Amino acid sequence: MTDLLLAPAPGFDQPIAMLKHCHDKIRKQLATLQNLLTHLPQHGADAAAQQAAQAVQKYFNTAAPLHHADEEVDLLPMLDATASGADLETVRRLRPEILAQHQQMDEAWHLLDGQLDKIANGSGTELSADAVNTFVRMYTGHMETEEGHIAPMAKRLFSPEQMAVLGESMGRRRGIEPTVLAKGSTAVGGIALADLRMDYGRASLAEDDTLADPVAQFGKWFEEAMKAQVNEPNAMSVATVGSDGKPSSRIVLIKQFDARGFTWYTNYESQKGQQLAQNPHAALLFFWPELERQVRIEGRVERTSAVESDTYFHSRPLKSQLSAIASMQSAPIASRADMEANFAAVEARLQASPDGGAQAEGKPQRPAHWGGYRLVPERIEFWQGRASRFHDRIVYTLQADGRWSKGRIQP
To answer: From the CA atom positions of the chain, what is the Rg in Å?
Structure first.
């Protein structure tokens, strides 16, 4: 009887075993595809065929992309950062091949997905044998490469801490949050703060890996953060210092970055607005823990033009526009009820007199105390977490002639 019991699936605390488990599920779906080729001519799109088509579609439209992301975002970069010698040569030879295979398999799947749609709803029976066989051959070769080279190397090279990082990332990608974030940490009290730490090891950062223009390099990392589905990749800390020399910081959302600088919008009379009026310099910080990266940006701050501020203000939802008018940001107020009363009063004025205090099209007029700031960068640092706190730090510094110098600083 025990031979008939299904082996339990490994947990994300065994990430390499979980990857192999994903491969086993892929092989089952590929076998189902091949079985459909012989089933359809004899039975058509009957209930069994519809159910099989739906199962294959569900897996390759939902689970397979997650498996690809596990490799692209976590496993391969971590191996590239950890391997050395012949292992590193193997990783750097196979990595572009594996990424290309992902793209080729996605394109091959697109053709099959359309055919399976009709089988799944009973409206068609066409399933291309050539397309199925090509898809099966692609996936089979792809999995053999990973099982023959990538998985054994990861098992041999990764530390327990790196395995934990890989497993937690795979779990989060599937909506599973770890109960233990790092060795020695816990969700309850009684643990010393000094013992809370997580070792890093997803990727490395060499001078040759970075672009000559730091804003372009930021764009590259920002795009990778978006692709990795980092939580709020556009969130950044803005640190300012007033005339009293005391710093303060807060999280805001970047709205634009280009060769001119990094732009956000706020109330000019807020605490940060007052401090910037006294000292027009600031520091920005982006932290993307899922990628073990941070970017530090320092420079002088200027206001955006009225046209830019107007354009962004009117791109916001109406209630966000009304909030900017109703709120005296950073000023004391007695209660939440008073805040809501202020908002209601602004909303009522607009409804009662669309032309009063509004533009011709009936939209609220941007208040003079609200608009954009642009930090013009003078120093930009790209930080990539590495094992044992031996991090990679590449710094760009603006020179007097307007060119950027680039160099490494110690962790």
So the answer is: 27
Distance (Å, whole) CA 38 – CA 43: 9
- Cα separation values, 289 from 48, 96, 198, 225, Å: 45, 25, 11, 10
Give 105-156 pLDDT, tens digit per residue: 999 998 899 999 899 998 999 999 999 999 999 999 999 999 999 999 999 9
In order, the DSSP letters of 334-358 are S-HHHHHHHHHHHHHHHHH-TTTTB
Q: What are phi and psi of 299, to 5 degrees?
A: 170, -175
pLDDT of 346 > 60? The answer is: yes
Query: Helix (H, G, I), strand (E, B), or coil: what is residue 194?
Result: helix
Per DSSP, the residues of 137-156 read HHHHHHHHHIIIIIHHHHHH
Catalytic residue among 174, 389, 393, 408: 389
pTM above 0.70, yes or no: no
Tokens of 12: 């994300």
Query: Is 374 among the catalytic positions?
Result: no
Which of 286, 291, 227 is CA-nearest to residue 257?
286
Rounded to whole angstroms, what are the CA distances from 39 to 28, 46, 48, 57, 178?
Answer: 16, 9, 9, 17, 43
Phi-psi region of 50 (alpha: psi -120 to 50; beta: other; left: phi over 0): alpha
Cβ atoms of residues 26 and 143 within 8 Å? yes
pLDDT in tens, 46-80: 988 998 999 899 889 888 888 888 999 889 999 98
The C-alpha atoms of residue 248 and residue 271 are separated, in whole angstroms, by: 9
Q: What does the pLDDT read at residue 160?
A: 87
